[in-house]
Specification:
disordered C terminus; 9 helices; elongated; 218 residues
Length: 218
């Protein structure tokens, strides 16, 4: 006897089913692309098809939920690192955390990440992440840890760039991205350097009604 009431047991079952569905969907999308059917996902999760739709009314909702798992982990790390004393180290640790998550699931961006950008919750979470990274970067600039012309948008874009640079090596050397992060971060450090040859990129905003990243001109 567990002593659980029916309502408590139902909630526990719901949480378990949602976790199983997200895991099964992530694996299925990575292997087969986003055209995989909800029926197939239900089979892989070991639940009824109706259970899928109770948790995720549309496939877009399911894709968004998978993306939100990654974004929540990034936001949690960024919020925690904002409280660190060494802002330069905090910024580098955030970059390492983000690139490491991408490297651990190489199909994520192309297969799941891009389609999920159509979902309003995902775009809003990315905006919040960009704001937090701007704060992380501003603290690093203020402490003299990085160049004065580095912006949070530079950092967000570099996450994907460093991951893509290391991608051809990751099958044999799964931590190869650490080398390229060190090279990139060395270029971010505050030293006597020439002015960058191009102005800072416009601040990324994902909540444009078109569903496409929109520069704000900030």
């Amino acid at each position: 006897m567990t002593g659980r009431t029916p309502a408590v047991q139902a909630r526990a079952d719901s949480v378990r089913n949602r976790r199983l569905l997200l895991r099964a969907a992530t694996e299925a999308f990575a292997e087969c692309g986003v055209d995989v059917s909800m029926h197939t996902i239900a089979q892989r999760a070991g639940v009824a098809k109706g259970t899928v739709f109770r948790h995720f009314p549309t496939k877009d909702d399911l894709l968004a939920a998978i993306m939100m798992q990654l974004l929540d982990r990034l936001l949690e790390a960024a919020d925690r690192l904002l409280r660190a004393d060494d802002a330069g180290r905090a910024l580098k640790d955030f970059m390492a955390h983000g690139i490491g998550l991408l490297a651990a699931d190489r199909a994520f961006c192309d297969v799941i990440g891009r389609p999920s950008l159509q979902h309003a919750d995902v775009r809003e979470a990315i905006d919040r992440l960009c704001d937090t990274v701007e704060d992380l970067t501003a603290r690093a600039r203020e402490q003299g840890a990085v160049r004065g012309d580095i912006t949070g948008t530079d950092i967000v874009l570099l996450l994907g760039g460093i991951h893509q640079t290391a991608q051809p090596l990751l099958d044999r050397e799964p931590r190869a991205w650490e080398r390229f992060l060190e090279i990139a971060f060395d270029g971010l450090r505050a030293r006597d350097r020439a002015t960058l040859p191009h102005p800072p990129p416009a601040r990324l905003r994902m909540t444009d009604p078109s569903g496409v990243s929109a520069p704000t001109g900030d």
